[in-house]
Amino acid sequence: MKKINKTVRLSDQAYDIIKESILTGELAAGDTLPEERYATQLGISRTPFRDTLARLAAEGLVIQKSGAPAVVAEFTKEMSLEYMELRYVLEVYNLEKVLPKVDEEIIYSLRENVDQQKDAISRNSYSDFMARDREFHSIFIDLNNNSELQKVAHKYNNDVSRAFLLLSSTVPTSATEALEEHCEILNAIEQKDYVGAKNKLLIHLSKVEQRFMRYYENQD
After folding, report:
1. Contact present, 166 and 75 (Cβ < 8 Å)
2. Cα distance from N-terminal residue to C-terminal residue, the chain
């Protein structure tokens, strides 16, 4: 795990480090986060680390219980389905709203992101792919001026991405499939086929859900 850089606000750095460790699977579901141990490991006091835990708990990434260490949250089949339902509502609505704002600069960012996804897959770096996957969706979310919608959409985008890493047996196949679906969304946008882009996003989210279910079916 990374160390704290003293020139930047301690709680912000601790938050970024712990969150990255959770999203990449370095910290697994059910792992405990004892304050004293992690504050010492990060090189900070317990107060900024408590602030970090509170922010992560607000995002649903950790669970805090009175008198016990915080725990990295787990993802059940039911939770995954609930998160996906919220992504449908938020992201499809958001895309429809922000598509008129997509200019050549945004399209360039999307192309660059897709190239980074391809590179991550070629290197078998699936944690890197998931980071690029989150960024692809975040490009559209960040075009919306509604800051509250941004917060909620980013939360569920992050949570579902982390769930994929936790369900790691699906990642190699899922990454290739998701890349193809992202390319189809981008192609529709480049052709200014906004109805097609919205439909491609719906198909993509539907297939993300199917990939979750594929994992859970194998576990039953």
Report:
1. yes
2. 34
Q: Which two tokens stand for residue 99?
A: 């598509």
pLDDT tens-digit map of 120-140: 999 988 878 888 999 999 999
- Number of residues in the chain: 220
Please give the Cα distance from 9 to 24 (Å, whole number): 23
Task: Give the SS3 label for residue 62.
Answer: strand
Residues ≥6 apart with Cβ < 8 Å to 146 = none
Q: Kindly give, in sequence order, each residue whose CB lies less than 8 Å from that of residue 98, ignoring residues fewer than 6 positions away.
A: 140, 143, 144
pLDDT value of position 100: 95
Number of DSSP helices (H) and strands (E) in the chain, helices first:
10, 3
Q: What is the largest CA-CA distance in the chain?
A: 56
* C-alpha–C-alpha distance, residues 61 and 75, integer Å: 10
What are the structural domains, with CATH classification, of the chain? 10-72 (1.10.10.10), 77-219 (1.20.120.530)
**Residue of 89, 75, 79 lying closest to 201 (CA atoms):** 89
